[in-house]
Amino acid sequence: MSTKNLTLIGIVAFILLLGGCGCNGYNSLVKLDEGVGNAWANVQSDYQRRADLIPNLVNTVKGEANFEKSTLTDVIAARASATQIKIDPKDLTPEKLQQFQQAQGQISQALGRLMMVSEKYPELRANDAFRGLQAQLEGTENRIKVSRNDFNTAVKDYNISARTFPNNIFAGMFGFKAKEPFKAEAGSEKAPEVKF
Amino acid sequence: MKKQLFILLFSFLCICNAFAQKIIPKPNPARLVVDNASLLSPAEAETLERRLVALDDSTSNQIAVVIVKTLNDRPIEDVAVNTFRDWGIGNKKTNNGVLLLIAVDDRKVRIEVGYGLEGAIPDITSSDIISKDIKPAFKQKDYYGGIVKATEDISKAASGEYHVQRASKSRGGGAGNIFKFVFIVFIVIIILASRGGRNGGGGGSGLMMLPFLMGGGGSSNWDSGSSGGGDFGGFGGGSSGGGGASGDW
Question: How far, in Å, CA of B133 to CA of B113, rounded?
Answer without folding.
Answer: 17
